[in-house]
Design a protein that fits this description.
The complex is a heterodimer of chains A (455) and B (1019). Chain A is mainly α and 455 residues long. In chain A, 69% of the residues lie in helices and 0% in strands. With 1019 residues, chain B is an alpha/beta fold. Chain B folds into 4 domains: 214 residues, Rossmann fold (3-Layer(aba) Sandwich), CATH 3.40.50.740; 179 residues, Dimethylsulfoxide Reductase, domain 2, CATH 3.40.228.10; 138 residues, Barwin-like endoglucanases; 234 residues, Alpha-Beta Plaits, CATH 3.30.70. In chain B, strands 5-4-16-15-14-6-7 form a 7-stranded mixed β-sheet, with helices on both faces. In chain B, β23 and β24 form a beta hairpin. In chain B, α11 runs parallel beside α14. The chains are: A mainly alpha (455), B alpha/beta (1019). Chains A and B meet through α6 and α11 of A and α25, β30, α29, α30 and β34 of B.
């Protein structure tokens, strides 16, 4: 085994490829016709999306009653999916903004894709608050707008904060993503020969000419946006957690929720990004850009956040016991040993136990195993939201109103459909935009920056 | 033109006239005044109408808009039918009330029907009625739905084909005359006869057709009680019990507080000794029963005992009690008979010791009351026991249960069937009765009926009998009918129609009158009205020596709905021989099936009423079904649990039905409710539940309702029973006694309270808020519910359903937990599965001051009114369900579907049923949250009345629907800020508490803790 020189930063891009070859490699999917595999993949995701459309059609035609929600479980798959997808949308901005501020160069290979996933995940997530209401045609009422009735929204409702938090997050993430794309659009503009593409790329590249001055401004804007997006990464899931924490329901009414939700969101977001990137680097031959080292670093983050989540689970139990409040204590015992114990133990084994495997370097660096672990993490994180939302509601203060919740086929259609919706966007993204930031990657290739021979 | 010229000397270029040209002063003057003389004379601003130009334009545009919309085709849709000429007695928007009599069961409660614009929308008790005192049961409340049932029989039918009344009458009259000629029997099968005018009509019918026989039948009736009373005292009429004076009550499988006899009256009398307002001196209720009844749930001591052991139990008590003497002389025969019974009853010894002690020390002030379904022998023995204890002082002969005729005995009915089979019956008339369903199958009634040529069924809707009859004739609903009732001595009540017949139906009495006359054309709409009036003048008028003339008396009686007069049935001494003839039940060592009356569908007559199917059972909260209730021990023995099917067989008859494990059942007793399993009824009631009449027989040994010759076995399969409350196993320590731990139910004993009235609040913590309290000045609405008085009879729920347009959601939706009732009756078990203690709690929106639902609504659809109501703005509701999630009481109800559209393929969404809706309450659409409003429409009505009368609104002006219906007045509503009001005093009561007080959400429904009257040494 070779000795690693820890005083030196590892190469972010392996093999010191020629800068020109990076241009070629990254823009290749955009310049070639989609192959058969792409269409097969697209037809699968579109079929899943078809289920989404049918499920929503049934819901809109007949009512929310098509779902399994009942009294007392007013929220179930709808809000579980919402929180799940918002959580998935956490990795992107964290990678591109927070890691950028921390000067983590390894982020460059994955930032673009992760940001794309953020955008799509938040889009998917945003659908759920809109469709979960009983009268979706009145969704506009959640927006404060002046009207002749003098009606105003209720600013004390966390659901309203949600609307603002998630839409702000979406808009800022989208702008951040777009700003990062500008130099790449210019690169693509230079490369393409078709008129339409040229027009499109020219428009979106906003007249970028790779001038020094452009770069200076760009770096500054990017830095500012990164600074702007950083608190949002933390705030959006904090506010999502307020949906629960601000209520008086045992199991929801918990002060640990904001950090716990953010950690969980980063956890699930990284798992999803890791899952998807494993395919992307293989299919597009980006193994040297999205390196095993990068994947390993992501796994380490999963290990950290997974342990934080595990700590939160334990702390919830402790505080429930420590509070001396019987309904609170029961809620947690009921999670672990009540009728939804199966969901709870799926959650614990997927979220707490499985990521502990990442203590082992071999596992951290084994692509098949890390893939499976991350899949488990995503399953576990979905169940975490299920456990929080459904078990707390199904058995609250008055035993007389307790009821078991069972989802219907429409619930599953919408759940599967949401994945279809998300992955359709991902697929279209891979053929429409550079999935790796050309400009940024080129900047982190060994010897790409002027240096003074190690001084 | 010359600019310099001056107007005086220069002539104009343009002029209108010569005068103008010459500058005539007249013209100049006119020109000086802009307007013609006189035009502006009365231009006095103050005299003008206040309409500004802006307002005028607004009115103009509004009227244009109105004119435009008015010209659309709304009239053609038939949705709005304005009064062209307003009927004198109707004021649009104001309800009219009419007194009448309920015909839902034989008790004949007085009712007050609320009508709006001519359509009945609510039934409540008639406050002037001396028996039910302004209250009705759940069945009475919901029976209004039967009027608007789209499946009512709409026209007369001959052999299933539409016909007309003239034709039908013609044919039937000739059939009747044929029978008369051929000397064949004309059989009339009727339900319990309570109408004296009807009785006279039967007499008239019999004199026209002398070979007429009338059979009175009832599925579950007081027939056994009456027959036993006849044996013991020689009278078919028996006195009411003065429950209000009894200090010790022992109920033997009698649900006298639940659904037996005059239970509304009994509840009121019983709770007179459950008042906690002043000094607490309670009665003590012992219940010995095999099932778990509403009365059993109310008991201070409940003894589980199989119904076939009741005779032995009574004799055992008797044997112990005669040791300290007897109020009547007992011969040696009797004494030896009493002592002849022995054997271990395997019942709780301590409880029996308490019972004996109490009965002994309360002679003359206690009562033993046997249930309608127990055998004749038990009743006779109970009559003797009451005599021995001198409890006959509690018999109220001035308020007896009268009988206009006897119930047909099994032998008489067998004879009828024989005659039908042997072609000795020419005509069978079913008068609002359904013997094919209600008679045990071994009578062979159904097959016999097919042998009779002229079979007639007078019925409101198709039933098992009417489909087999040649003539199915539609009769008026009770709200379309005239009638009278004299079921109780001293009380004569009248029934009047409040709406013209909706379909081509006729009053059943009028149909009979037409047949008596022998000429179809004699029928007139008011034929029975006149008949009743003349009967009334001849009988009722004479009962009260009135100073008024007949007509005024009739109108005043009609207005009041009831008249009282002095009447007492004769009393006689106990016939000891009747007791000598009694015998012990046939003893089996196996299982005992106990069939009892349903709380909601009656004898099956309410089987097409969705509201009644959906009201949760008072004890086990099951909806839309009946089942075999078995004890946890029996369930273990059979290895079954809830929803598993068992097969019960008895003498070749079998019944397969699902199991419900009911804590507190006697070990080997199986309780099944009757009236379910109708097969010919309508879309709502078809095949709901299981028909347990199949287990009854005409050759019963002691009581038709107690069958101890059965065997049970588990069979494969399941039938899902749906309930509105989860069934937790009582001994599951995981969730045991949560209602006590969480202080949802707070209880004590009479002893505890008398020693320390403040005992409930010793452990109370002060709860602090960090926000500024909102001050309520003026009226603040609040409610209190006295748990000492609540029997969980569900009248409140049903009344709320009717008042607030609550939809029926159906079994599938109840299974999903989506019932829409704004109120629920929570039931909690404590104790052991063998001997559970039951606590009831009506739960509804608590209208919290710090309502947690309000701050989470993103669109402010739920908010607080200045008078303390938690309000819902349906129009604004988007349907996020967040409010419901954050409600700790989970009393909010969500319209998961448009339930009117969703239930049974739009069953209740038709032009007819829509008429039932209370026009003051919005019909909610799908996707909208709703909940109890404290009947805000009634508050608003009271407020506008107060404003119109120029006085302040008093809390007592408002009566909520649940409060109005509550038979025991457990619910009190009013102004918490009025220190004189009942509610404000109850809020300060020593036993008052709020549920989940520690959340500091400040609920406004106060519960008065239940006190149990147990023996002091037990505490």
């Amino acid at each position: 085994m070779s000795v690693v020189d820890h005083t030196k930063e590892l190469s972010v891009v392996e093999g010191k490829p020629a800068l020109r070859s990076l241009d070629d490699l990254i823009s290749k999917p955009l310049e070639t016709k989609p192959d058969k595999k792409f269409f097969i993949a697209l037809s699968i995701t579109l079929s899943m999306m078809g289920l989404f459309v049918i499920g929503l059609g049934l819901t809109f035609w007949y009512g929310v009653g098509m779902w399994g929600n009942n009294n007392p479980v007013g929220w179930a798959f709808d809000i579980v999916n919402f929180v799940f997808w918002v959580g998935i949308g956490h990795a992107g901005t964290l990678i591109s903004a927070i890691l950028f501020l921390f000067r983590q160069k390894w982020r460059t290979g994955i930032a673009r894709f992760a940001e794309g996933m953020t955008i799509f995940a938040v889009m998917t997530a945003l659908l759920f608050p809109l469709i979960h209401v009983g009268r979706p045609w009145l969704d506009g009422w959640l927006m404060p707008y002046p009207n002749q009735h003098g009606l105003w929204v209720n600013f004390t409702s966390p659901l309203l904060w949600d609307v603002f938090a998630v839409s702000t997050y979406f808009i800022v993430s989208l702008i951040f993503w777009y700003v990062g794309l500008i130099p790449d659009f210019a690169t693509l503009r230079e490369r393409t020969s078709t008129k339409i593409k040229k027009a499109v790329y020219s428009t979106f590249s906003l007249g970028w000419r790779f001038s020094n001055r452009h770069w200076q401004h760009y770096e500054m804007v990017y830095l500012i946006l990164a600074g702007f997006a950083t608190p949002l990464v933390l705030s959006v899931h904090t506010i999502v957690s307020f949906d629960f924490a601000v209520s008086i329901l045992p199991g929801w009414h918990t002060t640990i929720f904001p950090p716990y939700f953010v950690a969980g969101a980063v956890f699930s977001g990284f798992a999803m990004v890791q899952n998807v990137l494993i395919f992307v680097r293989k299919i597009f031959n980006y193994e040297h850009i999205i390196t095993l080292d990068t994947l390993e670093k992501m796994n380490k983050i999963m290990l950290v956040t997974g342990s934080m989540v595990g700590y939160a689970y334990a702390m919830e139990f402790f505080i429930a016991w420590y509070s001396g409040v019987q309904p609170e204590q029961f809620t947690f015992l009921n999670r672990a040993f009540g009728p939804y114990a199966w969901a709870y133990w799926i959650m614990v084994s997927c979220n707490v136990i499985t990521p502990q495997l990442f203590w082992f370097k071999k596992i951290r660096r084994s692509i098949p195993i890390m893939f499976v672990v991350a899949v488990f993490v995503n399953v576990g994180m979905w169940f975490e939201r299920f456990v929080i939302v459904v078990t707390s509601l199904s058995r609250d203060y008055l035993p007389s109103s307790w009821a078991y919740y069972t989802p219907t086929y429409v619930d599953f259609m919408i759940l599967i459909g949401s994945f279809g919706f998300f992955f359709t966007w991902i697929l279209l993204f891979t053929k429409a935009l550079p999935v790796v930031s050309i400009a940024e990657v080129k900047a982190v290739v060994d010897d790409a920056q002027p240096s003074h021979k190690g001084h | 033109m010359n600019d310099n010229r001056n107007s005086n000397d220069m002539k104009k270029d343009f002029w209108k006239s010569i005068k103008d040209y010459n500058d005539d002063p007249e013209v100049l003057e006119v020109k000086a005044n802009e307007f013609m003389e006189g035009v502006t004379d009365d231009f006095d601003e103050s005299k003008l109408s206040g309409i500004s130009r802006r307002k005028f334009i607004a009115l103009l545009s509004a009227s244009t808009a109105f004119a435009a919309t008015a010209c659309t085709d709304y009239r053609d849709k038939g949705e709005i039918v304005p009064y062209n000429k307003r009927p004198e007695e109707i004021l649009t928007g104001k309800a009219n009330y009419y007194a009448s009599t309920c015909t839902g069961c034989s008790q004949s409660c007085g009712i007050l029907v609320k009508t709006r614009e001519g359509r009945p929308i609510k039934i409540d008790g008639n406050p002037d009625h001396p028996i039910n005192n302004g209250k009705t049961c759940a069945k009475g409340q919901a029976s209004i739905l039967n009027l608007y049932d789209p499946e009512r029989l709409k026209y007369p039918m001959i052999q299933g084909r539409r016909s007309d009344w003239k034709n039908v009458d013609q044919e039937i009259i000739s059939q009747l005359n044929d029978s008369k000629k051929l000397n064949k029997e004309i059989s009339i099968v009727t339900g319990t006869l309570v109408s004296p005018a009807m009785k006279k009509l039967f007499d008239d019918f019999t004199s026209q057709y002398p070979n007429t026989k009338v059979y009175q039948i009832g599925l579950v009736s007081d027939q056994i009680r009456r027959e036993a009373w006849l044996e013991s005292y020689g009278s078919y009429d028996y006195p009411a019990i003065k429950f209000e004076e009894a200090t010790i009550i022992l109920s033997l499988d009698s649900d006298f507080l639940g659904n037996e006899g005059s239970f509304i009256e009994n509840m009121q009398k019983y709770t007179k000794k459950r008042e906690v307002i002043d000094k607490v001196s309670f009665n003590r209720l012992y219940v010995a029963e095999g099932r778990m009844s509403v009365t059993g749930a109310m008991a201070d001591y409940r003894i589980s005992i199989s119904p076939d052991l009741q005779y032995q139990f009574v004799l055992m008590l008797m044997g112990e009690l005669i040791k300290s003497g007897s109020a009547i002389n007992l011969s040696n025969d009797i004494l030896s008979k009493i002592n002849s019974v022995s054997g271990d009853l395997k019942i709780d010894k301590t409880k029996v010791a308490h019972l004996l002690k109490d009965l002994n020390s309360n002679r003359g002030k206690s009562i033993i009351y046997a249930g309608d379904t127990l055998s004749n022998d038990v009743h006779v023995a109970v009559n003797l026991l009451n005599e021995i204890l001198g409890n006959t002082t509690l018999y109220d002969y001035s308020s007896s249960f009268k009988s206009l005729m006897h119930y047909a005995k099994a032998e008489e009915l067998s004879q009828l069937v024989d005659s039908m089979n042997n072609d000795k019956v020419g005509v069978v008339i079913h008068l609002d009765s359904n013997p094919v369903f209600t008679l045990p199958a071994d009578f062979g009634y159904e097959s016999a009926l097919k042998k009779v040529t002229a079979t007639i069924s007078l019925t409101e809707a198709v039933n098992e009998t009417s489909t087999l009859c040649k003539y199915a004739l539609p009769i008026n609903n009770q709200l379309e009918s005239w009638g009278d009732a004299n079921y109780r001595s001293s009380v004569y009540s009248l029934q009047q129609p409040v709406i013209a017949p909706i379909f081509d139906t006729r009053q059943k009495e009028a149909v009979m009158l037409t047949w008596i006359s022998g000429e179809p054309s004699t029928y007139k709409d008011d034929v029975y009205h006149k008949y009743l009036m003349s009967y009334f003048n001849n009988s009722a008028y004479s009962k009260r020596n009135r100073l008024s003339d007949e007509k005024s008396f009739w109108y005043s009686a009609l207005h009041d709905g009831v008249i009282s007069y002095e009447e007492e049935i004769q009393r006689s001494s106990f016939r000891l021989n009747s007791f000598i003839n009694t015998k012990q039940d046939f003893q089996s060592n196996g299982y005992t099936v106990h069939l009892t009356e349903s709380y909601f569908v009656g004898d099956g007559r309410f089987a097409n009423n969705g509201w009644l199917h959906e009201v949760p059972h008072p004890i086990n909260k099951i909806t839309w079904d009946n089942y075999a209730s078995i004890s946890p021990a029996l369930a273990k023995e059979l290895n079954v649990e809830m929803n598993d099917l068992i097969e019960i067989s008895s003498e070749g008859k079998t019944l397969t039905l699902p199991v419900l494990v009911q804590p507190g059942m006697a070990d080997k007793t199986i309780n099944i409710e009757l009236g379910y399993g109708r097969t010919v009824v309508g879309d709502v009631g078809n095949n709901v539940g299981f028909n347990a009449i199949g287990l009854m027989t005409k050759n019963y040994s002691s009581s038709p309702f107690v069958n101890n010759n059965v065997s049970i076995s588990k069979v494969n399969g399941k039938h899902k029973l749906v309930s509105t409350q989860e069934h937790h196993s009582l001994d599951d320590t995981f969730v045991k006694d949560f209602h006590r731990i969480r202080k949802i139910i707070q209880e004590g004993t009479v002893e505890e309270y008398n020693n320390d009235p403040h005992f409930l609040h010793h452990e109370k913590h002060e709860v602090f808020g960090i926000t500024r309290e909102h001050k309520y000045t003026g009226v603040k609405w609040a409610m209190s519910i006295d748990l000492n008085k609540c029997t969980s009879c569900t009248a409140c729920i049903t009344s709320c359903n009717v008042e607030n347009n609550i939809p029926v959601v159906g079994k599938d939706q109840v299974e999903r937990g989506r019932e829409m009732h704004w109120m629920r009756l929570d039931r909690y078990y404590s104790g052991t599965p063998e001997d559970p203690i039951i606590s009831n709690q009506p739960m509804l929106c608590q209208h919290c001051d710090n309502a947690p639902c309000e701050n989470v609504c993103p669109v402010n659809a739920t908010n607080h009114s200045p008078d303390g109501l938690n309000q819902m703005a349906y129009n604004r509701c988007v349907g996020t369900r967040y409010c419901s999630n954050n409600c700790p009481y989970k009393v909010r109800r969500y319209n998961f579907f448009d339930f009117r559209d969703h239930f049974e393929d739009e069953y209740y969404q038709n032009n007819l049923t829509a008429l039932i809706n209370n026009p003051e309450v919005t019909v909610r659409s799908r996707g909208v949250m709703e909940k109890c409003t404290f009947c805000v429409q009634r508050i608003m009505e009271a407020r506008s009345d107060a404003i119109a009368e120029g006085r302040e609104l008093k809390g007592a002006d408002v009566v909520t629907a649940c409060q109005q219906a509550c038979p025991t007045n457990a619910i009190v509503f009013g102004d918490a800020n009025d220190p004189e009001s009942r509610i404000s005093k109850l809020r300060k009561h020593n036993l008052a508490y709020h549920v989940l007080e520690e959340l500091n959400i400040k609920p406004n429904v106060t519960y008065i803790a239940k006190l149990r009257n147990t023996h002091p040494e037990e505490n």
